[in-house]
Task: structure prediction
Amino acid sequence: MILFEALYVAPPALTAQAPILVIAGPLIGACAAALSPGGRTAWMVSMLTAAFALWMAVAVAGEVAREDVIDYALGGFAPPMGIALRIDALGATMALLVASIGVMGALYSGHALESEVKAEKHTLFQSGYLLCLAGFLGLVFTGDAFNAFVFLEVSSIGTYALVAVGEARDRRALPAAFNYLIFGTVGATLYVLGVGFLYAATGTLNMVDMAMRLATLGDNSAVQAGLAFVVAGLGVKAAMFPLHGWLPGAYAGAPSLVSVFLAATATKAAIYLIIRFVFDVFPEGEFGEIFLSWILAPLAAAAVIICSVQAVFEKEVRRILAFSSVAQVGFILLGVSLATPAGLSAGVFYLVAHALMKGALFMAVGAFAISVRARTVEDFSGIAREAPWSAAAFGVGAASLGGVPLTMGFLAKWSLVSAALETGEIWIVAVLAIGSLLTLIYVGRMLEAMFFRAPGRGAERAREAPVGVLAPLFVLAGLSLWFGVDATLPVSMVNASVSALVGAAP
Amino acid sequence: MSEIALQVNFGLNIALLLMLVAIGLAIARTRSLLAAILLMGMYSLASAVWLIVMDAADVAFTEAVVGAGISTVVLLGAILLVRAGPVRHNWRMTIAPAVLVLGVGGLLVYAVTGLPEFGDPASPTNAHVGRSYLIQTSDEIGVPNVVTAVLASYRGFDTLGETVVVFAAGIGVALMLGFGPRSNLPRAPAATGDHHVVLRVTAKLLIPLIALFAFYVQFHGDLGAGGGFQAGVILAVAPILHALVFGLRGTIAALPVRAVRSVATMGVLLYSGVGVVCMINGGGFLDYDYLFPPSVEAMIPPGLMGEPYHAHHWGQHFGIFFIELGVLLTVAATMVTIFYGFAGRAAEEPGAST
Result:
């Protein structure tokens, strides 16, 4: 966060309100987009709003770097009476990530929507997109357990609809969206049940206050059940194995903009909230340790192995990437489950790395989709010859996913392995090794088809994507490369996040 | 409460809970979608009564209006759109939900053992923040209905979020069902010689009364049970009833699809706009104490509302008024948008109805 300490990017009056503006900006933007006369205007609104949210997120990051934690009392009521936003280094990092992806997605949507979504739906689509953005940003900023539920719902309801819009390209988007809706609603219900029990036991919804009261409460079955419900509910949203059933269909069927945005932010925001609850709200003690090492770690390991294998045997590129996402969530949660500062920072670093590379990969697939209807790996044969720039960006993302040196993915895997070695959990190292090997297999299969095979029946008609699509794609892929060489910025942010969480620098 | 009253209350609780269990089982057992929807309406009504017994009038109101009223209409609209046929059951469809239900049920039972006793005045929910709300509302907010104070002021940001959720649902339905041709909407049947005279006359009488009642609920929210969500849903019932009895064509002519959608957006804008105005005047987002700059507040005549308790906290009073209005607009317009989405389609594909 050193870099941000020197940043004063907004006037002081605006900076003081920046935490809420990060959320309120996209909310108001969503209304403006819905009222826009046409798709073009809505797109401009979307761009401006996302850029504004990013600007404010940078301002918040600067404040957090200087002051460690920002509290923003909504309505002027101090918590626990009122709702408060509470942003530490982890929240600021997540907001920067979500807002950056939001800007890239908005930029990308200028061209991507035209080929995938009917023109008459563009205004409402952009509105839904901004609602999701506001939801995820609210989720990472809020310091209130019930407010988090509200934002979880804002973002979820938006995403269900956005996924379903993919039916114009792929009819399977409809059942996928329905699946997502059912899974997501069950998850949200479990979460709110859990918050209800925690409220009954503590009488408060503010996370800091709740944590203090839980610490003095001792063993209580309502608290234990509450925490279990909260984690299970968030686990559905985070696609934690075995609650990930909604994800492959949703990612594969959604319009590519939505896949990009979801893959890079949706599961990440839920993982963030899990980390928040486990390390900030849960009372320290046996219960949390049992959860981490006997439930989270095995499930994460199962996700890494099983879903990587599924990805290896999958034929469609988007579904490969989707199964890979579930497996990568496993990698992230394995790091978190170590519960050491090194493990946590490896997990958070992996989270950022994965957001950037999966964003780039789905964006590249979307860039191909503008000109050709390619679905399976076969369809992508030789596409690199027709669309070299998009393919190059895909290659960078895939290399990062596979953990090739000089990419961010490599650093992420490396820090994960060293964190696991440090704790002496050899089985985790073994799981990481097997998972990485499987990743290399499916990544290699896609790259081999794209770069080294003769153009297939789909690829011949492929054209290079327009600049408006290539620009955000290059930014995401470029960041995966840049942070692979010089990781000072993300590493300092992640370290600050982890020391905010556990109170010790890794 | 006296001992007997407590026992009666306890008995009522048990009876209503048993009723809910019975209806729940019936919903699970029935194979008819229509029956399931009607039973779900009954479930909502029964739970509304139960909430009344627990003195949660505001929640009961919402449950009755939303659960038993509008969602029944929307679900009925939905089954008109789908071809319902027998579903083949396989073991996965039985096992997975069974595991989920048993797991959640088991955990719930386990959790109940750790909960404070029902109605215990010293329980955390009654002793901590809840108690502070009861004590401080009259000083800080100045409205008699504490539920409204919590909902609209103390936790007004949540309510903004909930309003946005409703708005997002409307956007979602509009994205999925709101487009495409609607040319063959059925014309309203001729005024004479049909079998629906009673229905039409009654509807004509009821629609203005429903709208009037909605506004009563809206503006009464400060004083008693009510507020924007309940009023919005009640208000939406007026055009929906009009469409059901007189045909969709006439309703859409009066309330065009795009206009209704815009109204839903305006509601969210009004709500967040109040927040922004408070911010511009130097407070935090949604800090109604800053809604009016001091110069404006000085101009408000003290007896404006004719109620002594409004003499102070003009900001809070008007803040709640405006945001409740925003909620009303968004909820009412979204409900109508959702209804349009379903009803427009139903008229489009008459062959698909069951």
